[in-house]
Amino acid sequence: MEDLELITKEELAQLFRVPKSFVDEAVTARQILFTRLGKRYVRFSRENVRQIHEQGFEPAMTA
After folding, report:
1. What is the total count of domains within the chain?
2. In a domain, 14, yes or no
3. Which member of 1, 24, 28, 34 has the lowest number of beta carbons within 10 Å of its beta carbon?
4. pLDDT digits over 21-60, tens only?
């Protein structure tokens, strides 16, 4: 059941150290992965968080 742990938009914002408004905008624009529960509730699984992290990964530039 540990894999089914879901976090809220507030918790995701804290995890990535960004404003909650950033998460809200990204969800509205469907720029990040999320799980919708009913019409109102948005949650993020561990897999969603991993994929969001990978989505933003940029390799170091070499000279």
Report:
1. 1
2. yes
3. 1
4. 999 999 999 999 999 999 999 999 999 999 999 988 777 7
